Amino acid sequence: MSDRNDDASLFIAFLAGAVAGAVVGLLLAPKSGKETREDLGDLAKKAQEKAAEVASDVAEMVRQRMDRSAS
After folding, report:
1. Which residue, 29, 33, 35, 47, has most beta carbons within 10 Å?
2. Is the dihedral of CA 37, 53, 16, 20 positive or negative?
3. Domain count along the chain
4. Is it the case that residue 4 has pLDDT exceeding 70?
5. 64 contacts 7 by C-beta, under 8 angstroms
6. Structural domain containing residue 10
């Protein structure tokens, strides 16, 4: 059970870091509103892809640990 909590904590920390980085980037970017919105859309797509990748990796780690504990 502790391993699942560790994996979930890692995933949440990753997402929090991504959000914090995006906020700082937006606050410091010297761009127009349209450019910033386009950049934000691109960033959101990349974040979604990365989150899906991390979620898949976490799910695979959980499956492997469950298989090990079942053996």
Report:
1. 47
2. negative
3. 1
4. no
5. no
6. 2-70
59 is written with which tokens?
């799910």
Phi and psi at residue 31, in whole multiples of 5°? -125, 165
Distance separating alpha carbons of residues 10 and 54, to the nearest angstrom = 10
Give me the torsion for CA of 21, 24, 29, 33, rounded to 10°.
Answer: 90
Give the span between the Cα atoms of 28 and 70, in whole angstroms.
50
Which position has the token pair 């980085």?
21
pTM of the predicted model, to two decimals? 0.51
Task: Give 14-51 pLDDT, tens digit per residue.
Answer: 888 988 888 888 778 777 878 878 888 898 899 899 88
29 is written with which tokens? 């970017």
Report the half-sphere exposure of 18 (CA within 13 A, side-chain side).
17
CA distance 12 to 6: 10
